[in-house]
Specification:
The complex is a heterodimer.
Chain A lengths: L2 E5 L3 H11 L4 E6 L2 H11 L3 E5 L1 E2 L2 E2 H8 L7 E6 L4 H10 L3 E4 L4 H12 L4 E2 L1 H10 L5 H4 L6 H4 L3 H11 L4 H8 L3 H17 L3 H12 L1
Parallel strand pairs in A: 1-2, 1-3, 3-6, 6-7, 7-8
Antiparallel strand pairs in A: 4-5
Chain B lengths: L12 H10 L18 H7 L26 H9 L3 H14 L5 H10 L9 H6 L2 H24 L2 H23 L2 H11 L10 H24 L8 H61 L4 H21 L13 H16 L2 E7 L6 H20 L4 E8 L3 E8 L11 H16 L3 E6 L5 E8 L2 H8 L1
Parallel strand pairs in B: 1-2
Antiparallel strand pairs in B: 2-3, 3-5, 4-5
The chains are: A alpha/beta, B alpha+beta.
Amino acid sequence: MPRVFLVDDHGMFRSGVRSELAGAVDIVGEAADVGPAIAQIAGCSPDVVLLDVHLPGGGGQDVVAAIKPEHPDVRFLALSASDAPEDVIAVIRSGARGYVTKTISGAELIDAIHRVAAGDAVFSPRLAGFVLDAFAAGHSADLDRPSFDPELDQLTTREREVLRLIARGYTYREVAKELFISVKTVESHVSSVLRKLQLSSRHQLTRWAAERRLA
Amino acid sequence: MAPRRPGRDDGGMVDQANAAATGSAADQGGQPSGRSGSGSWTAWLDGHGMRSVRGPAVAGPLRRARDGRLFGGVAAGIASRTGLSVGVIRVVIVAAALGTTGYLAVPYILAWLLIPAEGAESNIAMKALTDKRGIGLAAGLTSMLAIALVIASALNAPWVTSLAVPLIVCAAGLVLISRNASAEELAYLRSLADPAGLTATAPRSRRVLRALIGAALIISGLVALLQGHERLALLRPLAGIMLLVGGIALALGPWWLRIAKEAVEERQARIRAEERAEMASRVHDSVLQTLALIQRKAGDQQQVVQLARAQERELRAWLFDGRAPGSMEGQAATVADGIRLIQQEVETQHGLQVDAVTVGDCELDDDLNALLAAAREVTVNAAKWSGADSVSLFAEVEPDSVSLFVRDRGQGFDPAAVPADRKGLAESVRARLARRGGSATIRSAPGEGTEVSLVMPRGAGDRMARRS
């Protein structure tokens, strides 16, 4: 059973998640803000940290940034009600393994936690949509700024297909069936997209997030 | 406008009492439209929207008139008190002020300050006594008198003094009035100042005109000063004046600046208060109303969930996208807007969750509106028939086309043996899209849910627009 740590500033929400996850995971602690979260996670080294994107004392990415270097084994799953793409992308780029919205069902959340604990990436339809948008072809910004690592800066056709299906509401298993590939292959595609998202130096990503903020 | 009273013919006691009680001598007359004073200039004043308040002398203390005022309502007040024509009184006041280079305008301002307005308990001066900033501002203005006096003595020109003293004293009095008059009176004053370009909200052309007039005055003043001194040596006193003015400005400048700064800060505080009030009213209209509804419907779980979800969406749209609550009702302008509208509508009306994801965005045209209408129909259909508790809605805007997918994990059906209603829907959606060059495909199997995909090529006009 994966050991899970809960970071969210709403006590109601924490207790709700606790009761939904009871029995399926081992909740080893919870915190309401950045400071206490960093202190406690370092102490109990959980497998997965369920992390709210918005916290009173800063963004969820501050927690990831503080824990990652010392405890590379701790994995983060962002969980948020936020629709703001730049916040979500910021948490993912700081090192979170996935992003799900708070409207997710208990069973799906448990599934997502297990997946992250196993080292896979978890893409909700919304995150898949964000990534497709950010990496969309034909953005003029790509033309006036040569890429240093073209492989990191664009998605393959297959990755695009996988993301599209996830955005349409398909589970990994359904994606695999649809594309006649194994679930393992779907997982590796998604992990590769996550890597690109985290490592790409794309000017495009920043610009895209900024544009979305203005919209 | 109340009907005018016909001359001094019916000033009976009862009428007088009435007039005094309502505070107006002009609205009790029974006979309408008996034009007084025949075609005199009072009628001309009337023609310009200024009512000549003329009637019987009214008993009671002197009050500044609220109706028929031009500035402070002093003349109209005297007129209603004495029964004289307000026009005559105005001419006398203006002539006296002009004849004395403005000295007699000071009593007018004083009267404005000291005589309470009709229906008011106290005068403006009483309130001004507690207005420390206002007094500071007025004192700051008065300190400019020093400069005027220096100029006057240096130029040996007593007319400067006789112009400056009443002007500055009047300005100081007006500052106190404008800060302490009642809100109603202020609104009236603003409506006077607006067309003259004296307020910040005045149209640009007016403000430019004001600046031009100011510049012209300054230049002609300088020319007049220099012409009086043909030889350069005689300009020395002028240089001396400049130095003195500079010195005084240095000495008193910080004080003036502080006064100006306080005025700005006060304005900002007011703006903040207004913003807070607007925020409060928005929250009240949306969140608080919904919370009240939820309390009342606490027993009906389905309803509560629906209300909370709709409210959450609206609040989020307001906080993150800057759309004011309630403004979503209108027509959508872009694909993403349209998808959001569908999501909101179906969630509210059918009580199931709609997970909407949009990639890219573009303006809506007729074709895309048809696509969205089809998407809405398909989504509503899924909400009604699938039995699932959530529907996924995915839209992707690509350079050449817009694709839309509506997926549910409900009971599904066998497309080969379609129930009549579903078939009807599929046919109507498919036909409607086909007419505009689009297409619709349905994939479903019993127990595996349904997915409808809709594709619409993007219009030629749209593509042209993106290229330019």
